[in-house]
Amino acid sequence: MVRERNAGGVLLLGHNMESKEQTKGLTDSLQRLSMETEPAIPLFVAVDYEGGEVGSAPWVPVQPSAAEVGGRGDPEEARRISEIIGRELGRGGVNTDLAPVVDTGSGTAIGSRSYGDDPALVARMGAASVAGFERASIVSSAKHFPNHGPASEDSHVARPVVDHDVQTVLRSDLAPFRATVEAGVPMVMVGHLVYPALDPGRPASLSPAAIGLLRDELGFDGVVVTDDLIMEGARRGGTTADAALRAVGAGVDLLVVSGPPEEQAAAYDAVVAAVESGEIPRERVDASVERIERVKERYPLYSGG
After folding, report:
1. Distance CA 231, CA 132 (A)
2. CA dihedral 254, 255, 256, 262 (to 10 degrees)
3. What is 2-298's CATH number, 3.40.190.10, 3.10.150.10, 3.90.1140.10, 3.20.20.300?
4. 31-45, 55-69, 124-138, 240-254: which range is least confident on average?
5. Residues 85/48, Cβ–Cβ less than 8 Å
6. Which of 187, 249, 284, 293 would bridge 141 by S-S if both were Cys, CB 3.0 to 4.6 A apart?
C-alpha cells in the first residue's frame, strides 16, 4: 500500500505493538519506505490510545479513563495525561493519536470513554486534551462527530440513529467539537451515525450536510477523517469500497480502512477510478491533499533514523 498506492498513513492495532523497541523498528521501517517512494512524504502513524479501557501501546503507562478524569473536573489533569500519552507514543514512532473522545454522554460503545454528560465540561476537557497533545507534538483527532454519546447502538455492528433536533445538535452535541476546533485540533473524526435533523438517509461520515456543518458552522479547515470504514455503520450491507467513494464525495479527507489488504486496495482503487472517470471531481481530492499536507508540515512526523 505504501509503495504501490502511496498510502498516507498506517493505523497500528494491539497485535502490531509488542514493545516500544519493536514498534519503533516497525514505524521507522514504514517511514523509510514512504520517504523512498515518490513523492517522499512521511506517514501518519496512528493508534487509538484514549486511556482507560482503550489503550493498546504496551509501553505507555496506564492512564485513567476519560470518565474518571471528567469526574474530577480538572482540565489541567486532562492536559497532563494527553501530554504524557503523546510523549510516550512518540518514543515508539507513533505520531498520531485518534483521541480525544469528545462525545457527550455514555451511550452504547462509549461508556467510560466520555468525559461526562455535560457538554460544557466535555468541551473544557477536550480542549485541554488537545493542548496536551500539542505540547507533545502529536497529531490529535476529536471524535466521533457529531456525537456518539447518545447513541443506543454500536456503529461497529449497526447504524445508530440519534433523533436530536437542530437546536440540540448546535447547542449540546457540537459544543465540545467547537471547543477542540478553537483549541487547534488538527483532525476531527466523523462517526457512522445518522442524525436525521442533519441528513435523514446518510451517516455523518458519508454525509455532505454533516461535513458541511463541521466546515461552515465550526469553521474547521483541518483534516476530516472517517471512523473505520469496515464498520457496519459505514457499509450497511454494502462494500467498504462503496463507503470510501461516498465518504470522499461527502468531503472527507482521510479514510481509515483496517480490513484485509485486498479490501484496502479495493477502496483505494475505487476512489482513483472515480476521479479518473469524473464521478469525483479532481478538485475535491486536491482540496483534501492540501489539508493533509498542511497538517503533515505542521508536525514532526518523522526525523529519520
Report:
1. 29
2. -140
3. 3.20.20.300
4. 55-69
5. no
6. 187
